[in-house]
Amino acid sequence: MTDWLQHLPVLPILVPLAVAAALIPIDERERTLKGSIGFTSTVIVFVVAVILMATAGEETLPGAGVYQLGNWPAPFGIVLVVDRLSALMLCLTSGLALAAQVYSMARWHTAGHHFHSLLQLLVAGVNGAFLTGDLFNLFVFFEVMLAASYGLLLHGSGPLRVKAGLHYIAINLAASSLFLVGVSLIYGATGTLNMADLSTRLAALAPEGRMLVETGAAVLGIAFLVKAGMWPLSFWLPTAYAAATPPVAAIFAVLTKVGIYVIIRLNLLVFGTAAGASAGFGQSWLLAGGMATIAFGAVGVLASQAMGRLAGYSVLVSSGTLLAAIGLGHQEMIAGALFYLVSSTLTIAAFFLLIELVERGRDAAADVLAVTMEAYGDFDENEEEEEVGVAIPGTMAVLGLCFSLCAVLLSGLPPLSGFIAKFTLLHGLFDVPTAGQARTISAADWTYVALVILSGLAAMIAMNRIGIRTFWASIEGTIPRVVVIEITPVVVLLAACVFLSFQAGPAMRYMQATADDLLNPAGYGERVLSAPRAGGQ
User: Fold this and answer.
1) Dihedral over alpha carbons 188, 140, 256, 230 (to 10 degrees)
2) Which of 29, 49, 242, 499 is deepest in the core (most CB within 10 A)?
């Protein structure tokens, strides 16, 4: 490993932080310049993330992928840890940030001040949360991420956006307080917040210390389940995401996955098989809450008349599917869950960007009128029969094709990655871990299967209904004005899903390797705690 490669783990945090600070003094009238600088920064982060992802499995040297800030070894110093999972999440985050940034430069970055600085701060916070190796710095990066998200959600003003933003701020401030309480309890019981060190100490704790750790983990879990959107903590999410501007909603699609990431990390690393009596702590709550979230999200998808709320409830379905998969505790499902995480996040982000293009120029009362017509009809006996069918201009054809791809992906229909993700997820549920050994399929397993299938059916019905109303039987018949810089991010995100479908084999091999890493907490702990200091000191 060369010297320059050793310093790559800090760049996904350092570059956007430095650029965010550099953009603030630039006059707001120079938004094109600020956007170009921000775009360059995000491209650099994306390239670094791809390199880290390509080299994440190369552990030929002791401490490979461990970056010691200040050259202090763990658990005493701050460490950044790059493994396959964190590298995957870095690529996903930077890819969505690129799409949001390009889309915003058409017009949305002019709707308020310091959009590009806030976006860079958000990227730095999210990347730091994925890279950090200890809980305290997870809190620090979590706060950086939330502070930036407050400004981004309020970007563009408007009464609905301000109302949703104030609710979002209040709820997340409460979650941050719980985060601090949980971290304090864990530190008081173990004397460490380094996750690798926690994984080695938990099994040896006395019963009273173990109880304190589990209490702290439960409080900490609530904070992240609020961000992940688990029912009943998810009441704020559909309204907030639907009120956000399109580029903000698209990048927010990955914020729920920050909560999912931390839960996966702690569940398999700290509360894995080596945790003794605490092994599998909280899985039953994750299972019950995840299934309730799927059901709640599916009902919300069916009830939504506006596409923004439909997309918001789709986020809940995605989160619930992943939380319940973690709660089931079947190790064979982890690779499929990671594939589903990537596919669903890309799809929902593309859908959020597409919604504004499709609805541009439409009257807000059109949906209400369409529902009324569906319920009571609009047939007039004296009306002469008109020629069926309309000429579809090129803009509507492109938008309709993108909408159809989103519908197929959200519904989980073949042959795209949405279907592959759900198939691999359910295949892992029924997979036999050892040859010749039978597995008993429990009622919870069958319930999960039913909810995953029914949530896909709900998405298909809702997307078909809105698609027909929008593209085939539109009351207004207006054609939105769309520029290339706006449709390009949507096409690229959907093309990534199509590429993921054709490259499902290599992608699943990477996901399986990631799952194997997660199921080996001893290897993670040894790599972090035994990493040598720079200079061989």
Assistant:
1) 30
2) 49
Query: Taking 70 as the threshold, does the pLDDT of residue 370 lie above it?
Result: no
Determine whether 185 is exposed, middle or buried from the number of CB atoms within 10 Å of its CB (0-12, 13-18, 19+): buried
Burial string for 246-260 (b: 16+ CB within 10 Å, else e) reads: bbbbbbbbbbbbbbb
How confident is the model over 246-257, as pLDDT tens digits?
Answer: 899 999 999 989
Helical ranges in 329-442 per DSSP H: 334-359, 365-376, 394-411, 417-430
Q: Indicate whether 537 pLDDT > 70.
A: no
pLDDT for 94-136, tens place per residue? Answer: 999 999 999 888 877 777 788 888 999 999 999 999 999 888 8
pTM, two decimals, is 0.88
The amino acid at residue 68 is Q
Amino acid at 277: A
Q: Please say whether the beta carbons of 130 and 514 come within 8 A.
A: no
Residue 18 tokens read as: 């430095």
pLDDT at 412 over 50: yes
- Say how many C-beta atoms besides its own lie within 10 A of residue 401's C-beta: 12
Whole-number average pLDDT of the chain: 83
Please give the torsion angle defined by the CA atoms of residues 106, 94, 334 and 146, in that order, rounded to the nearest 10 degrees. -80
CA 215 to chain centre: 26
Q: Which amino acid would we find at residue 412?
A: G
State whether the Cα torsion 375-310-455-219 is positive or negative: negative
Rounded to an integer, what distance in angstroms lies between the CA atom of residue 127 and that of residue 64? Answer: 19
**Half-sphere CA count of 305, side-chain side, radius 13 A:** 10
Q: Write out pLDDT tens, residues 505-522.
A: 999 999 999 988 888 888
Contacts of 285 (CB under 8 A, 6+ apart): 221, 327
Radius of gyration of the chain (CA): 23
Q: Check residue 74 and report its DSSP letter.
A: T
- Whether the CB-CB separation of 340 and 511 falls below 8 Å is answered with no
The reported pLDDT for the residue numbered 106 is 82
Enumerate the domain spans of the chain: 282-374+393-433+441-519
Distance CA 227, CA 307 (A): 22
pLDDT in the model for residue 349: 94
Give me the residue label for tokens 């120029």: 361
Q: Going by C-beta distance under 8 Å and a sequence separation of 6 or more, which residues neighbour residue 536?
A: none
